[in-house]
Structure formats: C-alpha cells, structure tokens
Write a structure and sequence with these properties.
seven-stranded mixed sheet, alpha/beta, two-stranded antiparallel sheet, 9 strands, Glycerol-3-phosphate (1)-acyltransferase
C-alpha cells in the first residue's frame, strides 16, 4: 500500500459513516429500473478501452449538442456573454467543443466512480504539490477550491492519489443514484459532505482534514452577492469566505484539466490565497471568481457551460436564459 493510499484510508476511517436509508438491494421498485440500467452502463463504460471511451464520449456529446436544444441554448448564451471577443463562427465551434468535452466527461466520471484511481496514476502529472505539503506540515486542514470542469469527478479521484480530501456535494433527487454516487465518492474521498451541512464541514476542517469545495455555481440570491465573472455580474456564493473565516483554513485553488492528447491529465495547486477573507464579501467573491475565470480560460471547452451560471440577476435586470 502506498503512503497516499494509507493516508486516504486513515481519513476515511475517521470520516462519519455513510448510512444509506436503504441498501442497494432495497431499490427493487420498477421506478428504479432505468436508474439501475444507467448505473450498469457506467460500470461498463469505466472498463472500456481508452480509445473507445473517447469515441463514445464524443458521440454522446455530439448527440446532446444536436438534439438537446435547451442545453445548447444555455451554452450558447454563456459563451456569448463570456467571450464577446470571439466572432460568431468561433463561438459556435467553442459550444460544439464544450459538448464533446462534457460527453467525454461522462465516461471520465464513470471511471472515477467505478474504478480504483491507481490504474490512472501513469496518466496524471501534479504541479504545485509543495503548497499543499506546507499546509500539511503545519497540521492544518485546507479548503480546496475545485472547479466544475467536465473532468470534475475524475479529477477528484486523481487528486486522491496524492492528497486525501473530503468533498462537498449536492444530494441527488433520485434516491438510488444518490446511494450509488455517495458510496462511489466515499471510496475516493475521506467523507462526502452534504452542501447544507456547514457544521459538519467546519468540524472536518478544524480536525485537520482538507475539504474539496466548488463555489462556481448559482446558488440563488439569498446565499450570494453579485461579483464579476467574465465581466458579467454573477450571483456568487458567500460561503467560501465564511468557511475560511470560521476555520482559519488556507484557501487552495486547484486547477485540473485533460491534456490535448486526450489521454493524460494535469493537476496544479496554486499558492494559498493571501489576505483571504478580507472582510469585504463582494471583494472576496470577486477574487474567487477571478481565480476560477483564469483557470477556465486555459481550457474553456472543458468547463461546465451547460449550467445556468447567470440564472439569478440583479434586481431589475432581464433574465438571460
């Protein structure tokens, strides 16, 4: 067992035990049959040869791009807002590439959830490990800023090869898929923390655990302040600064992407944010957005632009979608 595996198992041992409301065998009702089929497909996809994974993922992306007009409209709107410097043809190409990348991301998610990440160690390089090593040497828990790239869940699995971490997640509405997803993530991370469980999140960080947290989605007006994101005012969650203030944890931006060869991956830690939080909610939100924006600009096609990032608008502004 490698040193990283031992550390991950130690963190999992100390994590709150995952106790599903039902066992997997309890989901026998016909309403779950399609979900069982999807889960089975994910297990099959996880074991496909790499070249076939890419082909299937690309095909899924192109099918969704062509036929799911609602999601295409969301992506087109986001790209028009965020990349006005691109002409119409360049924007259309980027939108198509986004669907392809996110289609491949489905296969990557299946791989991250259904297989031991050790089999991918040869495919990943990791820069900036010294920043996290200094945090660990000080015995502190860190707040890791993850980003909703198409490689998100595979990125988490690859990250676990180097450093253990918990993960904050949104529970799925489908009880069976929630059971499957949470068990899968619990095998990768130390603990899977419901995004509404602030007390549990703070407790884990104060205990010296690192927590992977993604603040780059629209959580609504009450939880947010408006701060610029690609030059557009975006509802940006205030909780990032609040967690950092409550725990004293260093905030560690993590960048991860699929390399142009579509066969290898790169993870990179940036230095902890200095003077964060500053006490100014808008300034802190804008700073987090700026870090995320800079990461996205490296590989914009790999970001989850299918999400309505600008759904909540300032009072009096028209909706975008």
């Amino acid at each position: 067992m490698s040193k990283q595996q031992a550390r991950r198992k130690s963190q999992q041992k100390n994590a709150p035990e995952y106790r599903p409301q039902k066992t997997a065998l309890g989901f026998v009702h016909p309403r779950y049959w399609s979900t069982w089929l999807a889960i089975g497909a994910m297990y099959v996809a996880a074991w496909l040869p790499w070249r076939l994974k890419l082909w299937v993922g690309r095909a899924i992306g192109l099918i969704v791009w062509r036929f799911v007009k609602r999601r295409r409209h969301i992506a087109e709107t986001n790209i028009r807002l965020c990349f006005p410097e691109l002409d119409a043809a360049q924007q259309r190409k980027l939108v198509k590439d986004i669907f392809i990348a996110n289609g491949i991301g489905i296969l990557e998610t299946a791989t991250g959830w259904c297989r031991d990440p050790e089999h991918l160690r040869h495919r990943v390089s990791f820069d900036g490990q010294e920043h996290m090593a200094r945090v660990e040497a000080a015995g502190k828990g860190a707040l890791i800023i993850g980003i909703h790239f198409s490689t998100l869940d595979l990125g988490g699995a690859l990250h676990s090869l180097f450093f253990p971490a918990d993960v904050v997640y949104r529970p799925h509405d489908n009880a069976l898929f929630e059971h499957f997803m949470t068990r899968a993530r619990s095998n990768i991370f130390g603990a899977a923390i419901d995004r509404h469980d602030l007390r549990g999140l703070v407790r884990r960080i104060r205990s010296g655990n690192h927590v992977w947290y993604s603040p780059d989605q629209d959580f609504g007006r009450e939880a947010s302040v408006f701060a610029p994101f690609f030059g557009v005012e975006a509802a940006t969650i205030k909780l990032t600064a609040k967690i950092a203030h409550m725990t004293g944890a260093p905030v560690m931006p993590l960048i991860f992407h699929r390399n142009p060869d579509n066969r290898t991956y790169r993870l990179e830690y940036l230095p902890p944010l200095d003077n964060f939080p500053s006490g100014d909610e808008v300034a802190d939100a804008a700073r987090i957005n700026a870090v995320i924006e800079a990461a996205i600009r490296r590989h914009p096609e790999q970001y989850l632009w299918l999400h309505r990032r600008f759904k909540t608008r300032p009072e009096g502004e028209p909706k975008f979608y």
